[in-house]
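S2.1 Query sequence (Type II toxin-antitoxin system VapB family antitoxin)
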Amino acid sequence: MYITEVEMSLTHIDIDDEALETAKRLGGHRTKTAAVAKALEEYNKRLSRAAAYEKYFELAKEWDIEGAEAAHRADKEAYGA
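Output structure tokens follow.
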């Protein structure tokens, strides 16, 4: 098993106690830190997906069906999918 070291910073922020306890309970997290870390991870994933959707939506305005298929194939090849 590999353990990766992650850079972390100590930060003081005000968070609604009820919302944090709900996140801990629903997410099965034992600590507030774990709940907040997971929330940030999920938030970043959501923003990344939204940015990707926006990128392809803008690109698709110029595509015909053959262009869309070609771009999709190129993306798959570029990312090894």
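The mean pLDDT is 88. The radius of gyration is 19 Å.
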